[in-house]
Amino acid sequence: MGTARRRHRARSQSTAEDDDVVVAVRTLARVARLLERSCTPMTLAQYRVLTRIAAGEARASRISEQLLVAKPTVSAAIDALVAAGYLDRSADPADRRAVGLAVTAAGVVALSTAEDAMAERLGPVLAGIADLGPFRDGCDAINAELDARFAARTSGQPVPTETEGGP
Prior knowledge:
Layout: H1 3-12, H2 16-38, H3 44-54, H4 60-67, H5 71-83, E1 87-91, E2 99-103, H6 105-127, H7 132-154
Antiparallel strand pairs: 1-2
Helix pairs in contact: 2-6, 3-5, 3-6, 4-5
């Protein structure tokens, strides 16, 4: 039996919960694409890094852990943000190996511009939803779960998986 056929057969035997996850994956992928297309004057990856630095995180290794990407990916985004004038690098007097990162005034404007552009693109989609309360609750719950998983991962605690009864 071919791989595609096995996948189809396995898929047809999935549970309602699996279907919910697939719907979420497909929806989030569509929303991500919508945001990617409107995220100017930077890429969505650069936006994600810039928001972490604007929130006070100044170490590339921590940012890569938070965003679940490789450190070279974060370093490349940081290089591009520095080249665009959105970030400043500085030596960390407390740790010679560390580099301090700070959002520049131009970076604050670029971040605001990107968020305005993405909000303008996503706004009409959200306006079509009669009651945004459950949507917002869902977003808050997802963010809380991601934060909890990040905290568990960075503290060395096991992160629950589907087979361990966690989400």
